[in-house]
């Protein structure tokens, strides 16, 4: 009886290993999917870090620009304060010139 059972058992062994092989293939696919998912997550995290860095740099640039603008405004204000008296002087000179012209005509 043992001799006849052996040939009958041998097909079941490959069938079992094939099933196991199928499961391993599924495990392999799952493992690959998990690896890809983890890689995607890492890439996303890196993008977020890069995005944060860019945002920080951008905010720093904005702050620098605002500081430059306020410094320029100060310079403009100072220049205007210097220009206003000069404009008054120019007006006075203009009226003096006009008076002199009138006097020249009279003479």
From TrEMBL:
Region feature Disordered, mapped onto this chain: 1-21
Biased composition (Low complexity): 10-21
Transmembrane segments: none
Protein name: ICE1 protein
Organism whose genome encodes this protein: Pycnonotus jocosus
